[in-house]
Amino acid sequence: MKIVTDHLHKAFESRIRLGIMSVLAVNDMLDFNTLKDYLDVTDGNLASHLKALEKEAFIDVKKSFIGRKPNTKYFMTELGKKAFTDHLKALEKLIKSQQ
Amino acid sequence: MKIVTDHLHKAFESRIRLGIMSVLAVNDMLDFNTLKDYLDVTDGNLASHLKALEKEAFIDVKKSFIGRKPNTKYFMTELGKKAFTDHLKALEKLIKSQQ
Known about the structure:
4 helices, 3 strands, about 20% strand, elongated, Transcriptional regulator (chains A, B), WH_DNA-bd_dom (chains A, B)
C-alpha cells in the first residue's frame, strides 16, 4: 500500500532547491546574485543548496570573466530538467489525488 | 523579485510529512501501523515526522483502548487542513508557472 509521494525526488524537498530549479527552468543561465534576488536567501544558504544540486548533476556552472572579474553562471542540466519535470508531475498527481 | 515558493510551508518540505498529510486528508483517522504501511517508512522515521506535525498542531492524536491494548489514532486538525490546502495551492501555482 504505497502512496503518491513515491516519485518525489529528495533533492527537491527543500523549498529553496525547488525555487532554484523553477527559476533556472525559465531562465537559461543566471549568476549567483540574480538567483539570490529571486529567492531572497542568504549567500551561505544559496551556496549550499546550489552545491547540493550540482552534486546531483541537476545544475552546472559556466565560469567566465566580465572584464577582469570572474563570473559564474548557473544553468540546469538535461538530467536536472528531466528530474524536475518528473518531480512536478509527481506533485501534480499528489494534488489531484486530494481534489 | 520573489518567486512562487513563498507560500510553501516549511513543515511540508519532507516527502514523508507530505505523505502523512495526504493520507490523513482522505482518511479521517489512522493508527500508527496503517500510516506506516501507507508510507513505507521505519517506526522511528514516522514517529519523528508525526511529532513534527503534532508540534505545528497540524495533526492531533486520539488515545483509546481496543480491549486492553492502547490504541493511538492520528487525525488532521482544522489548522492542518488549512495549511495543507494552502501548501497544495502554492505547489499548484509553482507547477503552472512552469507549464
